[in-house]
Amino acid sequence: MLTLPKRKLRCSFCKKSETQVARLIGGAAGGYICEDCVSVCNKILDAAPSPFKSWDDLTEEQLLSSIKASEASITALHSLIHTQIEALRKREVSWTAIGKALGVSRQAAWERFS
Ligand SMILES: [Zn+2]
To answer: With contact defined as beta carbons under 8 Å apart, do 11 and 72 qualify?
Structure first.
């Protein structure tokens, strides 16, 4: 008899599985975030004083310390959208529908994510 492997929960941001992270927090929309990614988010928030006025109000040191965290979040979000689009494509959702949801043409969505 064929048994399917148990599906592991993954961080929606960095895609690490539940066995690779200390803790995984679930969100209301079905996504998850791991402790490491929460830490990245906290660094981003700490780098910019609140209330945030402008990047011009930050010191060079604050700006320099914030760019690595920003880049990490871009990488994580890039990974997230690819995971979401993979899930849609597995359900055979069309590139036209994906493009429409993103506000771009079918061709633009396909070129960017296929
Ligand atoms: Zn993560």
So the answer is: no
| 0.90 exceeded by pTM | no
User: For residue 30, how far is its CA from the centre of ligand 1 (angstroms)?
Assistant: 14
- 96's CB contacts (< 8 A; 6+ apart) are 106
Token readout for 4 is: 């399917």
Backbone angles phi, psi at 67, to 5 degrees: -70, -35
Show the tokens assigned to 9.
């929960």
Cα of 45 vs centre of ligand 1, distance in Å, is 17
For ligand 1, the distance from its centroid to the CA atom of residue 24, given in whole angstroms, is 8
113/9 Cα distance (integer angstroms): 23
Tally helices (H) and strands (E) across the chain.
4, 2
CA distance 74 to 82: 12
Q: Where are the beta strands (DSSP E) in 2-93?
A: 24-26, 32-34
pLDDT tens per residue across span 76-89: 888 888 889 999 99
